[in-house]
Design brief:
Layout: H1 3-20, H2 25-28, H3 31-41, H4 60-74, H5 78-96, E1 116-118, E2 123-125, H6 137-153, H7 156-189, H8 192-195, H9 200-206
Helix pairs in contact: 1-3, 1-5, 1-6, 3-5, 4-5, 6-7
């Protein structure tokens, strides 16, 4: 799924907590919302280094989130609530990737059986392909579904950021497949000395 979809999932998680507990930091501070959005993005920071393995921890993030939630309940401050939402959103991201496509650069072909790596189980979780690939039309639909309650609950800069995330998502959906075609042509034209500097999985898929 798109990074924006994951970020919006984090935001709507924070919005839900804020709606259930309006007197909590999640309902009165922007910090938990920002932390949840960052937590939704964080696992994808491994895009160029062992993607969906280096920073994706579906089990360990979930366990850490449970502990962080307990701490936030016992000592509810903006920081503890933000930490709990960050970890919960990162756990949600890691788990959601198993519902999408595989790790290949053309996931619409359905050739990869690697969706996300579970360090706890020591193996790759296979893709369910409910969302066929990142940037698929259904991925955009999911992003919009996450964005709508966030747009209803938020205002000002936070609402603007949510709208911008949807706009970026829509643009990415339009260019998703053509980006791979253009990248293939660029990689094919590169000298071997430069290709050797690219992440191995990109070269394997593009050449």
């Amino acid at each position: 799924m798109m990074a924006t979809t994951h970020a919006l999932a984090g935001v709507v998680l924070a919005v839900l907590v804020g709606a259930l507990f309006p007197e909590s930091a999640a309902g009165t501070s922007v910090l938990p919302i920002a932390a949840a959005a960052l937590g939704g993005l964080f696992p994808d920071f491994d895009l160029y280094a062992g993607h969906r393995r280096t920073l994706h921890f579906p089990v360990y993030f979930s366990a850490a989130a449970v502990v962080a939630v307990a701490v936030a309940v016992a000592a509810p401050t903006a920081l503890t609530v933000a930490a709990a939402l960050f970890l919960a959103a990162a756990a949600l991201h890691s788990a959601m990737d198993a519902l999408g496509g595989g790790l290949e650069l053309k996931p619409w072909l359905g050739t990869s059986e690697r969706a996300v790596y579970s360090h706890y189980h020591g193996q790759w979780i296979r893709p369910r392909r409910w969302i066929r690939y990142d940037g698929a039309p259904e991925d955009l639909a999911l992003a919009v579904a996450f964005a709508l309650p966030a747009m209803y609950a938020l205002d000002g800069v936070a609402e603007t950021v949510v709208v911008a995330a949807v706009a970026v998502s829509a643009f990415y959906v339009l260019v998703r497949k053509s980006m791979v075609t253009v990248t293939e042509e660029l990689v094919a034209a590169l000298p071997d000395s430069l290709v050797d500097r690219l992440p191995a999985r990109f070269v394997e898929d593009l050449r």
